[in-house]
Amino acid sequence: MGPVELLHMSVFSQSFSPCGRFLAAGNNYGEIAIFSLCAALSPDTSEAGRKPVLTFSAHDGPVFCLESFGGHLLSAGDGSVSAWNWAELIKKNVKAVWTRRPEYKASMEIPEINAMVINPRDNSVVFGGGDNNVHILDLEHGVFKSVFRGHTDYVHCLSVREREGEVLSGSEDGAVRIWDTRTSQCVHCVEVHKYQKCARPQFGKWISCLTTDSDWMLCGGGPSLSLWHLRSLTPTSVFALSGCQRRATFYQDMILAVGQGPTVSHCLLGGQVKAQIPCTPNNINSLELNTNSAEHQVLTVAGSSQFVDVFTNVSYRAFSLCF
Amino acid sequence: MSSEALKKRKAKVLRNEAGPTEVKRGRGDGDQQDIRVYNEEVELDGRDHEEDFLQFKESCEGLATLMGEIQKLKASGAKEGCAEVEQKRLQSCNHFMTLKKLNRLAHMRLKRGRDQTHEAKQKVDVLHLQLQNLLYEVLHLQKEISKCLEFKSKHEEIDLVSEEEFYKDAPQEISRPQLTKNDPHQLTLARLDWELEQRKRLAETYKESQASKEKIQKSIEIKKEHLRSLQPGLNAIMQASLPVQEYLAVPVEQTQKHTEIAQHLPPPLYVLFVQANAYGQACDKKLTVSISGDVDEAKAMSKPPEDSQDDDSDSDAEEEQEKTKRRRSTAGGQLDDKRREMLKRHPLSLSFDLTCKDGSVLSLYFYYLINLNIMTVKAKISASTDLTTAISAGELVKSETLLSCLYSNDHGTETPNPANRYQFDKVGIGSFADYVEELGHPYKWVQNLGGLNFPSDTSEGVLVGSSLSASHMENTMKLLRGRVMSRLALHKQFASLEHNIIPVTSECLYLFPAKILSRLTQWTTITQEEYMNLTFTRHVTDAGLAKETDMYFSGVVERGTARLQAAVVLNPRYPEISPLFSLSLNWKGERSGHTDDNLRAMESEVNVFKNELQGPRPGYQLLTNQISRLCVCLDVYLETEEQDDGVEGPREFPREKMCLRTVKGPNRLKPFKYNHPLGLFSHR
After folding, report:
1. Is B668 on the interface with A (CB under 8 A)?
2. Residues in contact with B516: Cβ distance below 8 Å, sequence separation at least 6, in sequence order
3. Where are the annotated WD repeats, by residue (chain A) (predicted)?
4. Cα–Cα distance between B508 and B267 in angstroms, integer?
C-alpha cells in the first residue's frame, strides 16, 4: 500500500474480538486489519504496536460492516457476507469459513451491503443495502430465511429489538420501518423528515443512523438526530448537531454521536449537546465500544483517514491506531 | 546381712594373703579349690551395680542408726568401753568395711568402663581412616575415568571419507572388511590408513602439477618474449600504412587517437568513457561520446601508466612546490586558493549526446573533481521544437532540475563522498550545494557510472570498478532518455494547458464521455510555500508527500458558478510517480477534500486509480488525463447534487450523465467511475 493509497483511505467498520483484546477494522480497499489492543495500550508501546498485526484482503469493494458473533468475525460490503474465525485470524491464518450471497435480481452492479446486525435470539444475521431489501441469514443452517421488502431506496442502517422480535431499518428514502421478524411484515413506517422538528431540507431526508434501547430509538441522517419513544412513535428530543450523523449509541446516561465533522458529540437525553471531543478523521463512519474485556474498555472511532482513534476515557482521544 | 558381711570379710582376708591375681589363678588352676581363690575382678562381673548401690544405702543407714544409738547411750551416761557401746562400735566398723569395699568396686567399675570406651573409640578410628582412604581412591579413579572419556585423539579432526566410500574405494588389504566390519576401532584405524595413503598420492600429484605449471609458465615467458619482439616490426608496418589509410579514409588512427586521449582521463572518467562507448556500440547507436578539454594540461597532470612511477614522484614534488608557494600568499587569499584547489576539476571532461526519438538531444557533461574524488554532471536539452511557449513549464527543462531524483532520493546537491565533509571543514566550505551551479550536480548515479562507490556509513573503501559502471549504464541511459521524453511531453502539454485546452489523444478518448461541460480555466506554477499555505493541501504536507524537489502547480476547473481549484504536486520522477491532486470546491460555500467525502472520492479517483489513466506506455499523458477526469468528476458531482425541494426554480446543472444510482454506501458517494462502452457512470 503506497502513501497515496494511505492518504485516501477510509475506514468504514470496526468490531472487537470476543476476548476484547483485538480490534478488526475494514477500509474502502476491501481490506480488514486486525489491531492488538494489548500491544497498543501497553505503557511502553512504540509505533509498531499501533500498526495492525494482520491486514488481509476480504472483499472486492469497501468493507462496510463488521460484526463479531460466536467466535466468528462477519464482514460484508460488496453484496456478500463472509465469516472468519477469530482464533485463526489471531494466528494469522486468513481463510474465510464461509461466504454467502443472497440472490439479487439481475442488476448492472452488485448491490452493496450497508448494514449488518446480529439477532442472537434466533441465531441469525440481519443485513441490508443496495437492493432496498433487508435479508435474514439463518446462521444455524446457512440459508436465507426471509426478505423484508418495502423500502424504495437503499437501506442505510439496521437495529434489532431482541425482546419484541422486531427489526428496524433506516433508508435513503427517509423512512424508518419496523418489521416483525415472525411474519416478515412491516409493522410501522416512520417518515422522519415529515416531522417539522427533525426535518432539514437543506441536507435531505435519508436516515443513516439508527439505534434502539428498550422503548427508545435514536435516528438521524439528513434530518437531525432525534430520540423517539417507540410505543407512542413520537420524537421526544432533537439534538442540535450541525452535520449529518452516521453513527449514534447509548452510553451510560448519554448519547454518543458521530458523523460529518471531526468530533465525537456527547448529548444528554434531554436534547442538550454536552461536549464535542475532537478526533483525527474529518468525517467519522464508525464508533465502537469495547465491552468484551474489562481491562481494554475503550471507545474507538474511525472514518475518512487511515487512523483509528482510541479513547481510553470517552472525554479525550488517547492515541491513534494506524493502517 | 551379717552373714554376708562375714563372707566378705573372709574374702578380704584371703585376698590380702594371696598377692597378684595371676598367681592366685595359677594356683587355683593347680588345685581344685578354685572357689576359695578369690578374684575381685571376677566378683565385680558377678555383681550388679544397682544392688551395690542399695547395699551402700543400707550400710549408710545402719551406720547412722548405730551412731545415733551410741550417742544416745553416751548421753545417757554410759561409760567409755561399755560393752553395749563396744558392740555397737564393732557393728559400725563392719559397716565401714562394707562401704570401703563398695568404694573399691565402684572405682574398678569406672576404670573398666573407661577402658572399654577407649578400645571402642580406637576401633572406630581405624575404620574411619580406612573409609577415608577408600573414598580418596574412588575419587581418583573417577578422575581417571573422566580423563579417559575426555581424551581426544588427533585423528578426530581429520576429515575422513565416509564409510561406504571407504569400503568401495580402499583396497582389501587396507580395508580388511572381515576384521573391521564388526570392530569400530579397527575400522577407524583402517580408515586412517586409507586417508594417509590417499594424501600421499595427492601430495605426489600436487608436486607433478607444480612442475607442469612451471613448465607452462616458462613457455609463456618465451612466447611473450616473442610477441614483444614483434612490436617494432608492427610499428613499422603501421607507419608504412598511413598513406594507404588516408587514401582509403579508414578511421583506424582516429579512434586510436581517441583512445590515446582517453589514456589521460582520470580513472572514473575513463571507466565511464569505456563503458559508454561499449554500451553505445552494443545497444544504443544514438549515444555519442566525446572528450573535450585541454589534453596537454591533462598530460602534464598524469602520465600514461606505463612510466608512471618516476613521473608520479616528480609531479608530487611539483605539487609540493606549488603548495609551498601558496603558503606564502596572504591568509584570506590562501583560504580562497585552497578552496579553489579543493574544488578543482580535471581539465578533461566527457560529453554525451543522447538523441531521442523525436530528434531532441540531451547533452550531458561529466566532470571529475580531482581532490574531492567525485564526479559531477551538467545537462542541457536541445529540443526539436520551440521551448519558450509555455511559461509554467519553465521549471521542467531547466538544467538544474532536469535530472533531479532520477533515482529516488538522489537530489544531487550534497556530495556523495563522505570523506569530503572533513575536507570541507578544513577549508571552510559549508555545503557543496553552493557550488552546484558552477561545478555541476554530483548525483549518485553519476558516481556509479564512473565506477565510484561510496558506502554510506564509512569514509573509506572507495572502489573503482568498471563492473559497477556497466551494471548501471543501461538502466541510467534508459532513465535519462525517459526523463527527457517525459519532460518534453509535459512541456508540450503545459503549453496547451495554459491556453485552457486539455490535450487528450485519441488513444485515451475512451476514458471520458464525449460531452464534458466543465472547463479548465487556469493553469499556473506555484511555489512550494504557496502550496503549503493552501488550507486544503494540509493532509498532503502532513503525510510528507510535498518535498522540496517536487514541482507545484495550480489549476482551476469551472462550470457555471462552481469553481474547483486543484493543487498539484509533480514529482521529478513523473510519470513513474504520479502527480498528486488536492481539491477545493467553491460552490454554495467552500468545500474541500477534508470536509466533503465526495471531493475526497474525486481526489482518490485521480490519485489512486491513476493506472486507468496512464494511456499508452510509458504514460506521458497521465497528467492531462487526470485533469480531464477531474472535469468529468466535477460534472458528475454537480449534476447529482441533491436538489433542495424547498427551493423554487430550475436546477442549475440538469442531469445529463447516465448514472445507475446517484448515491451509494454509508458515506453517500456519487458515481464517479465512467464505464466506457456503456457510457454510464457507476460506483467503485
Report:
1. yes
2. B628, B631, B632, B635
3. 148-189
4. 49
User: pLDDT tens for residues B191-223?
Assistant: 888 888 899 999 999 999 999 999 999 999 999
Take residue A208 and report the three cell numbers written for it. 443513516
With respect to residue A212, please indicate whether it lies within any of the assigned structural domains.
yes
Rg (CA), chain B: 60
Segment A138-180, tens digit of pLDDT? 988 889 999 999 999 999 999 999 888 899 999 999 999 999 9
Cell, residue A200: 432539514
Contact indicator for A137, A100 with CB cutoff of 8 Å: yes
The question of ipTM being above 0.95 is answered as: no
Domain count, chain A: 1
Residue in chain A lying closest to B667 (CA): A285
CB atoms within 10 A of CB B75: 8
**What is the CATH classification number for the domain harbouring A226?**
2.130.10.10
pLDDT at B536: 87
Does pLDDT of A122 surpass 90? no
Q: Report yes or no on A35 lying in a domain.
A: no
Q: CA–CA separation, A85 vs B80, rounded Å? A: 127
| Domain ranges, residue A149 | 111-236
Pairing of strands A22-27, A31-36: antiparallel
Q: Which pLDDT belongs to residue B413?
A: 75
To which residue does cell 489523444 refer? B505
Q: Residue A229 falls within a domain, yes or no?
A: yes
Residue A146 lies in a domain: yes
CB atoms A282 and B645 under 8 Å: no
Query: Grid coordinates 574411619 are at which residue?
Result: B128
| Nearest in space to A312 (alpha carbons), one of A300, A298, A295 | A298
- Interchain proximity A64–B597, CB inside 8 Å: no
Residues 6+ apart with CB under 8 A from B435: B343, B429
